[in-house]
Amino acid sequence: MTDSPHLETTPDDATGARSWRDLPAVQQPEWPDSQALRDVIAELESYPPLVFAGECDQLTERLAAVARGEAFLLQGGDCAEAFDGVSADHIRNKLKTMLQMSAVLTYAGSVPVVKVGRIAGQYSKPRSKATETRDGVTLPVYRGDSVNGFAFTPESRRPDPRRLARMYHASASTLNLVRAFTTGGYADLRQVHAWNRDFVRSSPSGQRYEALAREIDRAMNFMNACGVDPEEFRTVEFFSSHEGLILDYESALTRVDSRTGELYDVSGHMIWIGERTRQLDHAHIEFASRIRNPIGVKLGPTSTAEDALQLIDRLDPERTPGRLTFITRMGADKVRDKLPTLIEKVSAQGAQVVWICDPMHGNTFEAASGHKTRRFDDVLDEVKGFFEVHKGLGTHPGGIHVELTGDDVTECVGGGDEIFVDDLHQRYETACDPRLNRSQSLDLAFLVAEMYRDQ
Ligand SMILES: O=C[C@H](O)[C@H](O)COP(=O)(O)O
Ligand SMILES: C=C(OP(=O)(O)O)C(=O)O
Ligand SMILES: [Mn+2]
Question: Going along 385-426, which residue ranges are E strands?
Answer without folding.
Answer: 399-403
